[in-house]
Write a structure and sequence with these properties.
The structure is a homodimer. Chain A is an alpha/beta fold. Chain A contains 8 helices and 14 strands.
Chain lengths: 326, 326
């Protein structure tokens, strides 16, 4: 009989936490017992898991006794303070926050790209930033076949990346014109700044992309913005490969890459859109074009569901690889 | 006494046409008589100009008798067929469509960039594409001072660029969830294709940028998308200059350029947004950063009101230069 696991979801009432619970169900993850953890104010909330109503419990130092795997998505304070508590209870943490991602002894994993890193974990495995996940899968496919020199990317990120509070704000602004001033409706905003020049989202994409692709010399230029779209991030990318490649070769390499759906027929109006990727677990790639302004240049347009492949699905795919390797 | 002109607005009931009328008022353009022209189905519509109600008349072969200047924004069919009619009546046409823009003997003008071209006209002066206008003003400032080698740009274009019909569709979709499938609400779409690889908007930006900047060897990589935002286009640009420039020099060059407002203080949340540029006639530039992934690389983020500076204001600024040169 296959082993079943005791799984905790930390931050179970948040947008990513709820998506994690849904995806554990959908993928029939082998669960013996599920524990839903959150802060004190969520205690008493009940969330359906399969045919059961599960009561949310308060996260505390004893939460991880007898838990095999904990999926964290409750902010960096919780990740920093409670991931070590979980590890001390022999629980393996898959953390969706940014706190652990760049630590040298923490694997930062996209299962289609660097699954071999999972076994190096010392209790914590980090789930990358949402926009980074969808960025590195096509880049990895191209890196393997042609090598990568430089990538210029501009993102088109959805509001769900800012959590339920962000979505609520957007919905209020749609309904009430008076709340629209200096806001997200009919507007484009940047993420908070990391320094005087770059936003924290841009810095995450620089660092995490290089770590996941194991290419510290990869030249990157990244601009990240938030749009008034509920869900699914998009990326416009101009890539300089290390060797010549014609567009048919590039398209075939991307088609063969696990985790990618190529949607690329502009003349018939077929290209990746947020509406195409919403609710899906693959990364959609299209607008594959030669960029003759650079040596070995190509263009890509990439969309993915940021709550699913950009967060919850990727974390659970890591968990699946983890238990299959045990 | 200063001369006053008889001015016709062709396409007077459209989104750009109505903006042209508003801007003629705002700028106190020296008008003797204004004539509002449109297709048959708009005849009888009345539009206010200053304190008068002006009845829209049907465009026909006699429309331009005694007209000095005609501002066209009624689609390419009208531009192609009626601009020569106007010219034959000794009327000077400033055309907002794409039909005449690339003709060798038609000046394509952004007054902050190449006003000297206006005097070369043979009756028709072309107003560039909306996203091109806001793109070339900062590029021109940098070209003069440092030279330009390559620009990678991704646009974030508003729905008003698709006219009143586009805006109506968006408003319907906000109100009625049932109309949202395969649409612009919560979505990102591309413009119609020009060939199998590029959209017509991308092709316009390639060709018009090079013509306006008089630099046919400028390397360009452009991706154009339409977002669910009512008004003001944005552009994320990565620029390779021909010589080294530090960011303070770049910022000063942009600050000194007529037509530009620099809004660049990320740490205090100051950067160009659609909400900042709506209703304004300047081009807003910010997120000015060194791009160390390229030799002499910089980043810019550019926004402008596409109905005003991207269309109506630019056309009327051309008309102002034209009459001042007479």
């Amino acid at each position: 009989m296959n082993k079943k696991y005791n799984v905790a979801v930390v931050g179970a009432t948040g947008l990513v936490g709820r998506t994690m619970i849904k995806i554990l169900e959908e993928r029939n993850f082998p669960i013996n017992n599920i524990k839903l953890l959150a802060s004190k104010r969520s205690v008493g909330t009940k969330i359906n898991y399969l045919d059961n109503e599960v009561a949310v419990e308060e996260l505390n130092d004893n939460s991880f006794e007898n838990i095999d795997i904990a999926l964290f998505s409750a902010g960096n304070y919780v990740s920093e303070n409670f991931a070590p508590v979980a590890v001390a209870s022999n629980c393996i943490v898959i953390d969706n926050g940014s706190f652990w991602r760049l630590k040298p002894d923490v694997p930062l994993v996209v299962p289609e790209v660097n699954p071999e890193r999972i076994k190096e974990h010392k209790g914590i495995i980090a789930n990358p930033n949402c926009s980074t996940i969808q960025f590195v899968i096509p880049l990895y496919a191209l890196q393997k076949k042609f090598g990568l020199k430089r990538v210029v990317a501009s993102t088109y990120q959805a509001i769900s990346g800012a959590g339920q509070a962000g979505l609520n704000k957007f919905h209020n602004e749609i309904q009430d014109k008076n709340t629209r001033t200096f806001s997200i409706f009919n507007n484009i905003v940047f993420h908070p700044n990391a320094d005087t020049c770059f936003t924290n989202e841009e810095v995450k994409m620089f660092n995490e992309t290089r770590k996941i692709l194991s290419q510290q010399d990869l030249k990157l230029a990244i601009t990240c913005v938030r749009l008034p779209i509920e869900n699914s991030h998009s990326i416009s990318a101009n890539i300089e490969l290390s060797m010549p490649a014609n567009i048919e070769e590039v398209r075939n390499v991307l088609k063969k890459q696990s985790g990618i759906v190529v949607a690329d027929d502009l003349a018939n109006g077929v290209y990746p859109t947020p509406q195409m990727s919403n609710g899906r677990d693959e990364v959609f790639v299209g607008r594959i074009r030669q960029d003759d302004s650079a040596e070995n240049g190509i263009y890509l347009w990439i969309t993915a569901d940021n709550l699913r492949k950009g967060a919850a699905t990727n974390a659970i795919q890591i968990a699946e690889k983890l238990i299959n390797k045990k």
